[in-house]
Fold this sequence. Notes:
Blueprint: H1 10-23, H2 36-43, H3 47-59, E1 63-66, E2 70-73, H4 77-104
Antiparallel strand pairs: 1-2
Helix pairs in contact: 1-3, 2-3
Amino acid sequence: MQTWDNRQPIYRQLADRLAGGLLDGSPPEGEPMPSVRALASHYVLNPLTVGRALQALSEDGLLESRRGLGMFVRSGARQRLKELERQRFLELEWPQLRRRLRQLGLGPEQLDWEA
């Protein structure tokens, strides 16, 4: 069973999970996303919530709607998503992580990048 964080709307959390799949190449560019019904069943969510998540990904330029066929992963979506996520990481997550590393006295020589 999926767990959801109360600090962020569920549709946004689902959009983030689906975006993670897109980063991993699932589904590949040009291929259809699972249907709203399939996603709603898998995540045990209201189809309206799933629709909002897919719409958010569409607004981010990652998906396109094909009338009568569903939502498809746009060409270049993975690269676009990587760029957006890198920017978000560098602006939001890295400064916090860097502060925490300094607090703990950890330097590059103590971090295993290959693990």
